């Protein structure tokens, strides 16, 4: 089968690999119907993920059809249409039972990082009962493509904010995760959502899709002043940092009101500074880390009920044999690309 392999820093290549087989009785083999490229895939290629193994097949964001299952798999049978979780988790350890699936004692971010991922014709999924979610007939592969990664990231980022009625929530970054954070915040009860990005075209997407109520470009206007004006001088009740830029972490704690929650779902390439003396007395709560994608079933149900639609995120399409070109295109920040569907 064709597969995209991470060879070394800055080097990826399409190669022929054997079709994967069942290695453990909790495995499933899935035919990849559609996949996508994630910014964290780029982080691996750039050498910013030390735990990533070389010579593995990249990719962790996909939907497909179950081909075979191990004898311990209880919820899936060949022919099932499924969306994939970006995380591998057992569902039974101390962390999993509390919903902290990113910290599973037997898993974590494995697919496309530690083991072969989905940028191939077929993929082996360990702990298939927890790593795959069956899709109702009215949910297409593309409808569910982002469930187990960027949609889960946005949902989780909003949940961390403990949103209350009347809250004004600011989202820094109107990329795919930021846009998913906005729609999640509205579904979870935020009264007003503020979209913040230096890319005006992305703010226009947030406006077109009715994901936010206010739109700020900090390259052209004073975000701190606007947020204070909207909140009678207090600041945002909660902030989701989904950009991961050079100064976006700083912006997040500056626009937050005292006693606010700052939810950091961004992945940084450099260490960030927490200037505690400057923030003394502001009593901020920071919640950070990798996504706990434990609500995939709930998200698929919301898609089935037409309460969530992420199809607008797909702006470009490529064939698997052209995926190296797709990576280059996705990395080009001037391309206007949100997400690519690899078919």
CATH topology type of the largest domain: Quinone Oxidoreductase, Chain A, domain 1
Largest sheet: 7 strands, mixed
Radius of gyration: 20 Å
In the predicted model, the low-confidence regions spanning at least 5 consecutive residues are: none
Fraction of residues in helices?
A: 25-40%
What would you note in describing this structure?
- Helix content is 25%, strand content 25%.
- The chain has 343 residues and is α/β, with parallel strands linked by helices.
- It has two domains: 2-149 and 292-342, Medium-chain alcohol dehydrogenases, catalytic domain (Quinone Oxidoreductase, Chain A, domain 1, Alpha-Beta Complex); 153-288, NAD(P)-binding Rossmann-like Domain (Rossmann fold, 3-Layer(aba) Sandwich).
- The strands form three sheets. Strands 3, 5, 6, 7, 8, 15 and 16 form a seven-stranded mixed β-sheet that branches. Strands 11-10-9-12-13-14 form a six-stranded parallel β-sheet, with helices on both faces. A three-stranded antiparallel β-sheet has the order 2-1-4, with no helix packed on it.
- The two termini are 14 Å apart.
- The model has no long low-confidence stretch (mean pLDDT 96).
What's the structural blueprint in terms of helices and strands?
Elements: E1 2-8, E2 11-16, E3 28-36, H1 39-46, E4 56-57, E5 61-69, E6 81-84, H2 94-97, E7 122-125, H3 128-131, E8 132-134, H4 150-160, E9 168-172, H5 176-187, E10 192-196, H6 200-208, E11 214-216, H7 223-230, E12 236-241, H8 248-255, E13 256-264, H9 276-279, E14 285-288, H10 296-304, E15 314-318, H11 323-331, E16 339-342
Parallel strand pairs: 9-10, 9-12, 10-11, 12-13, 13-14, 15-16
Antiparallel strand pairs: 1-2, 1-4, 3-5, 3-7, 3-16, 5-6, 6-8
Helix pairs in contact: 4-5
């Amino acid at each position: 089968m064709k597969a995209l392999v991470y060879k070394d820093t800055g080097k990826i290549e399409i190669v022929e690999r054997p079709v994967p087989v069942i290695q453990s009785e909790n495995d499933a083999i899935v035919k990849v119907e559609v996949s996508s490229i994630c910014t964290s895939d780029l982080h691996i290629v750039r050498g910013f993920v030390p735990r990533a193994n070389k010579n593995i097949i990249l990719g962790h964001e996909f939907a497909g059809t179950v081909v075979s299952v191990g004898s311990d798999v209880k919820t899936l049978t060949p022919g099932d249409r499924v969306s994939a979780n970006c995380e591998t988790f057992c569902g039974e350890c101390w962390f999993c039972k509390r919903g902290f699936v990113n910290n599973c004692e037997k898993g974590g971010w494995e697919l496309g990082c530690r083991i072969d991922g989905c940028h191939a014709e077929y993929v082996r999924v360990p702990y298939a009962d927890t790593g795959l979610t069956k899709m109702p007939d009215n949910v297409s592969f593309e409808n569910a493509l982002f469930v187990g990664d960027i949609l889960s990231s946005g949902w989780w980022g909003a949940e961390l904010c403990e949103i209350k009625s009347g809250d004004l929530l600011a989202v820094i970054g109107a990329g795919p995760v930021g846009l998913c954070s906005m729609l999640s915040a509205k579904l979870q009860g935020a009264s007003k959502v503020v979209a913040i990005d230096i890319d005006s075209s992305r703010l226009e997407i947030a406006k077109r899709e009715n994901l936010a109520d206010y739109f700020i470009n900090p390259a052209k206007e004073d975000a701190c002043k606007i947020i204070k004006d909207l909140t009678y001088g207090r600041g945002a009740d909660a902030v989701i940092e989904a950009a991961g830029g050079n100064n976006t972490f700083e912006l997040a704690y500056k626009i937050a009101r005292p006693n606010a929650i700052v939810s950091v779902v961004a992945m940084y390439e450099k260490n960030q500074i927490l200037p505690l003396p400057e923030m003394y007395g502001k009593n901020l709560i920071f919640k950070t880390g990798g996504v706990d994608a434990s609500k995939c079933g709930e998200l698929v149900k919301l898609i089935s009920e037409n309460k969530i639609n992420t199809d607008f995120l797909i702006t470009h399409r490529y064939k698997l044999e052209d995926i190296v070109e797709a990576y280059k295109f996705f990395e080009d920040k001037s391309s206007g690309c949100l997400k690519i569907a690899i078919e």
